[in-house]
Amino acid sequence: MADGRKDPKSKYTLDRGMPGAFEGETVTRRRFMNVTAQAAGGIAVAAFALPALGFAAGTALFQRPPVEWEAIGPPEDFGTESYIPRVITEVAGIGQVGKTTIYVRKRVPEKDPPSQPPGYADEFIAISTRCMHLGCPVRYIDAAKRFVCPCHGGVYDFVGKVIGGPPVRPLDRFYTRLRDGQVEVGPRYSVNSEFRRFPSYRDPAQDLDGIGQYLYPGRFSTPKMSN
Amino acid sequence: MKLPLPPLPTALQPKPKRPGEAEQAKPVEQAKEAGITAVDWIDERTSLSGAARWVMFRKIPKGTNWFYTLGSATMFAFLSQAVTGVFLAMYYDPSVVNAYESARHITNDVWLGEFVRGMHKWGSTVMVVLICLHMARTFFFGAYKYPRELNWVIGVVLLILTFVMSFTGYLLPFDQRSYWATIVGVNINGTGPLAGPFLSDFLRGGAEFGATTLSRFYAIHMLLVPGAIAALIGAHLYLVARLGTTAPPWLKAESHEGGIREERV
Fold first, then answer.
1. Among A90, A186, B134, B207, which residue's beta carbon has the most beta carbons within 10 A?
2. pTM
3. Mind listing the pLDDT tens digit for each residue in B109-126?
4. Residue A28 sits in which domain range?
């Protein structure tokens, strides 16, 4: 053509004079085979890529670990004035790596807002040593009645509230209960600066005040508590 | 001194030269000929010589200098990481219980283990330094401009993948430093809004640093990312050969005397 464009053709193959065209056929066989081959290739890729992706991400994102309770000693072990350190197993089967230190004391109703739901041993407070800046282990210093993080200088007061440094929310806690004369420690939960409880515990550095609670949604893998 | 011939059967005895025949090729010439024949055999079936010429005998601008070797230097750093990494993998055990012990075994017991592990460890820093210098060279020489923007983008992806390699490789010695650095690094990933919490769960393989975190990092470190880096280096080099390199910015474009001259036909 002079202007380099083809004349608009009829959409029917019959009108275009194709050999073997059917009445009302609009998709040429060449086009049909082309699309079929591409689709078959796409299905073949999806058939291995999607299961592989689900395999890599599914357990990581959706598997709920079972609710485990671990006895840490009789109630008389713990006082109201100071914290007693205890080592618990957070992840079973991986030796030392799965263990973590927690700090436990009796709750002082005047100082501590209640943050465990009814049905748990609310007279105990089990505080996680995971710093809420980026997850380094904090240490309780009894002389100062403070938790101090060695990495970037986060400081928490006696109840676990941030009073210095970069952490974004108070230290995580663990559910506690009394069974057979023993204090037992269960799953972890997070609190925001007003000590509102977030059962789906968040990673460190995830703010839970104001807009933060929506920017950092809870995980699908939260252990399911009985109540 | 000429030794008498062993009693060979007639078929194997050296034949006397026929009159008018050219002198036989000497062994050196024969070897040379064999090499050429082998290369010819491959080239006849692949036509690779054209591609090789296209890559290697390119025109380069005036003023090309040592700064232009930073990209190749980065690539050789990557090759060194790849080779040492493959051989470290022969002794390393990515299980939570044995990882530290196997790394200690490489360093203290295996012959040249400390050297090869050191090459891999220090080489990773060298690669990061070189890739940053290469990026700075590209930036300050203006070599990212049209038509090379896509190559800049590929380069940035390569930079990010290099950091992913540094991050995932840091956990593998599995000492206190790598463990806590990974905890901190994964939590930094988690600060991304909305997607962050799920990204950190994906990296750890769960809500906690668990049994599969180390093998997950190991697989990303030695299978997923190196493959992507190798493929992207290929694309990067293809575009370099396709588009050519730029002259350094201090070199003025050659102009005709008296400015642009109209060509009279």
1. B207
2. 0.85
3. 999 999 999 999 999 999
4. 1-63
